Amino acid sequence: MVSSEIILGLQDPQTRDAALSTGEGDDLPYERQLWGNLARRCVPPHTDKAPPLLTLLGWAAWRQGDTTTASHAFTDALDIYPGYTLAGLLLGEIRTECDPASILEVFRDEAARFTASRADLDTL
């Protein structure tokens, strides 16, 4: 039940964007494993739910320096949903050999801005 709640929750763009990893490198293997395991649960007829998970998997892999897995994950997300903007943008950045650190900085700034705007958030 928890897996399906996470998978469905990540269909919301704001939730998905908040799930983009801005954590430290030590957390990346766990994040990568989580997103990969959840993406594999999106089997037919629920394959259409996989693009956010594949994008998160690709982002964690890219941050670990694994551009091959990241490219495959982003491509798979786009194969399922060609209009998936975030996957397309990140795949484009890999192809231009962009450093994910510059993108991470933008994500961290956005996460901080979001947190500051939501003083009522529970900071567990």
Automatic annotation (TrEMBL):
Report any Pfam family annotated for this entry: DUF4192
Out of the domains of life, which is the source?
Answer: Bacteria
Query: What InterPro entries has UniProt attached to this entry?
Result: DUF4192 (IPR025447), TPR-like_helical_dom_sf (IPR011990)
Mind telling me what this protein is named?
Answer: DUF4192 domain-containing protein
